[in-house]
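Data availability (excerpt). The following record was deposited with the supplementary files.
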Amino acid sequence: MSASGRTGSRRERTGSTSSSEGGPALGALLRIDYGAAAASSERLVASAVSASGATGAVLGLSGGLDSAVTAAICSRACATTGIIMPDSEVTPRSETEDAQDLAGRLGIAHRTVDIAPIVRELARHVEHDARALGNARARIRMCLLYHHANASRAIVVGTSDRSECLIGYFTKHGDGAADVLPIASLYKTQVRAMAGHLGLPAAIAEKKSAPHLWEGHDAEGELGMAYEEIDAALHCIVDRNMGDAEAAREARVSEEIVARVRAMREASAHKRAPAPGACGP
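Predicted structure:
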């Protein structure tokens, strides 16, 4: 996979990789004030809309956890439109239906655009590479979001969480492109808890993370680690600045997990930084 695409291991999970029967240490990570965190994210979106002189926000609705929480936050902050962009040849129909149902529950405007014809046409003109085409799906969705935002004088709201941002598990200039990132301060496990706080359906709050950039694509299968393990390791590595051995003990995961998470973070640094030579703010 290109470094600019989603970054992850193709290793399959074969069982628990935790070094403790108690599982990864997430207690402190999950003990946050979710009401305050939601209010802060709402203010972030409202401020971004106001600062840009926009009429509201546009975001991609996938039917998954992150986009559902982001949509709920946006719906409290400003006029919000959800763009549902399945590739009908890859995306399970149930995901599209969940996204449409969620938009109805939240009372936000939404439209559905099947990107399959666009993907097929692109594939006719480029070399065959399934993974590159998967990342192209994310970039096609980005183009559609910015087209709609441009046409309606709105801003694009990204749905990446802190876990994905820190390990580079997003497509550069795809789902990583946005004008504001309201849940980028929350780890994946915190986003799950936030879904409960916001009263979102349990079927979405508990849903397995699955980008569906190609058939059968799910996040933990590609990464080879559970998000509970990733989050516990990241919290020790990034927030507490620990070395690998200490992080493994405190997070209650193996040193192999800690080393892999650290390596992913370091290898994806370019995805979080401005391009060399970029003009300043």
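Summary of structural features: The longest helix spans residues 130-152.
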